[in-house]
UniProtKB/TrEMBL annotation:
Name assigned to this protein: Protein SET DOMAIN GROUP 41 isoform X1
Organism: Cucurbita moschata
Gene name linked to the record: LOC111439283
InterPro entries reported in the protein's UniProt record: SET_dom_sf (IPR046341)
Amino acid sequence: MEMEMRAMEDIEMAEDITPPLPPLTAALHDAFFLTHCSSCFSPLPNSSISHSNLLRYCSPICSRSDSLTAAVFSTDHFPFSDTSDLRASLRLLHLLLSDSSAWRSAPPERIFGLLTNREKLMLAEDDSEVFVKIRKGADAMAASRRTNSADIRYDNALEEAILCLVLTNAVEVQDSVGQTIGIAVYHPTFCWINHSCSPNACYRFETPSDSINTRLRISPFCTDIGTGEGSCNQMSTVRRNFSHFITKDFQGYGPRVMVRSIKSMRKGEAVTIAYCDLLQPKAVRQSELLSRYKFVCSCQRCSAKPPTYVDHALQEISAFNVELLDSTSISNFDYDTAMRRIDDYVNNAIAEYLSIGSPESCCEKLQNLLTLGFYDEQAEDGDGKQLLNLRLHPVHFLLLNTYTALASAYKVRSWNDDENQCNATMSKTSAAYSLFLAGATHHLFLNEPSLIASAANCWVVAGESLLILVKHSSLWGSNTSKSSSPMGEITCLNCSWVDKFNTNRIHGRSIEADFREFSIGISNCIADISHKYWSFLAHECSYLKAFTDPFDFSWPKTITTCLNYHGRSCDCSKIQDVSEQDRQSIFELGIHCLFYGGYLASICYGHDSHLASQIECILHDMN
C-alpha cells in the first residue's frame, strides 16, 4: 500500500494548504546545543535551564516536555559526530511505548502510519555505511534506555525500526534566517506527501507561538501497489487513523511545518514536494533518492524521453581531443569517469576554501576550470590513450556550484582591506558571478517552474552582491557621492513592480500581482540594465567576458574564446572610472534583483519568510 496526499479542492499558486503541523519528534543538531532550546528550537535567552552538560531549554515547559531525552542522553552511548538522528529516535521510541494503542495497531512496516523502510535499509550488501550506522545507532539507543529504565528486551529490532523511520521521514529544519539547525519528523499529513522532481508544493517552518489560521486543504489517499487503485476498506482505515493523527498533539514542542503551493492544482491532484536538490541532473537525483529513500523516481521529469532541456543542460559536456588540434567535439569518451574526476576537482577546491580558508587557491583552481577546461587522459579504442579537454555547459550543475563558490571566495577577498583598490575589483567580480548564477538559475527556472525557490535565493544573493559593490567608494572615482538613494525613494521609470513591491514590503503586506506580468516586467528591467553594464562587471574575468550578458547561456562562440584570455588575473592597476549615474544604475539593478528574489520567495514561503528577513537586513545595511 502506498500513501499520498491529494488536493481536496482547486488550489491556486502561492496558497497555504495546511495549518502549522507539530512534529512527532525533533532534535537539534549538536552544534546548536549551547545557542538554541533543545525542545522548541528557539534561540536561548541569557538565562536557560539545563538538564545536562549539553542540553539546554528556554523555559520550564520546554524542559518538562523533553525530560525523557535529557534523562537518557549520554555522549558515552552516542559515539557519533552528530547525535540528532538518535535523539529524535529516542523521543519517538518513548512516544511509541507510551501509546500502547498506537503500538498494537501499527503494522510491521509502518509506525504511527509512517514507513520505516527497515527491510530495505538493513540490507548489508546494499549500503554498508547505512547498515553500520543503523546497527550501531540502535545499539547505542538500547544501551542508553537500559541504563535509565527497567526495559528488558534482548534484541534491538524496535530501535532499528524507529531509527530507520527517522532516517526515512526526517527533514532538516531551518530557523528564521534559513540556517539549518536540526531535524524533525512530522505528522502523516506531511510525511505522506510524495516526492517529485517537478513538485507543485514546498514547505516552510513556523515557531510554536505563531498564530496562523489555515485550514487543511489536502487529504490522504492510499493506492494498492498491485492494482493501482485504493479500496474502500483501505481508505476507511486510513481516514480513521488519519483523523487520530491530525487531532492528536503528540509532543507539542519543536517547529511547525506548513505546506504551500508553488503551482496551481486541480481537485484530486496529488500534492508533491522535493526530497532532493532539484538543480541536479537526473542521474544524480536518482542516485541520491535510491541511496537514502530506496526508491527510483518515476515522476514526469524523470520519465521524459528525450530528457527535458533542463536535465540535458545540467549534465552537458563537450569533449575535444587535444592531439587533433580540432574544435570539433567527440562523443567516444567515458562520461561517467570524466564527471567523477571533474566533480572531485571542484569539490576539493571548495573544501580547501571552506576548511583552511584559502579563497585565493580556490579562485585560481576554479577559474582555470572555467577558462582552460578540464584535461583528462582516457583510454581509447585499442591500447592507446587520448588526452581530452572537457568543457561543461554554462548551466552545468557543477558550474552552478563553481559560480557559487567563486562569488563567495571573491567576496571574502574583497574584505581584506577596504581602502585597497584591488578589493573593489574583487567585489565587482563577486557581484558578476552572483549575477551570472542568478541568470543561469532563472534560465533553468523558465523551463522548469519548480526551481522557483532556487531562483528566489540566487536573485537575493545577486542583489546583495551588487549593493555591496555600490558601497565600495574606491571603485567609483572622485565624481561620485558616497551616499546611496534612500530606500523609500526607490523607483523604476520602466516598470511599476519595484514601487509596488517596496510599498507592500514597507507595510508588511503580501503583494497581489499577476505572476507572469510581474516576472516578465521586472526580469526585462534586470536584463536591460545588466546588458548595459555587463562588460563593466565582467571586465576582470576572462570566462564571463565570453558571454554577452548574464542571460546568455549558449556555448561560447568558439572553443578558443576563453583560451584567448588564458592566464589573465585581476588587473589591480587600472579601474574603470564611472559616473554617479552609472553607480545609481547598478544600485537600481541590485534593488531589482533583490525585490524579484523577494517576490519569488513570497510565492514559496509567504511574505514573512527567511529571505524576506534577509532582504530587510540588506536594506538596513545600505541605509
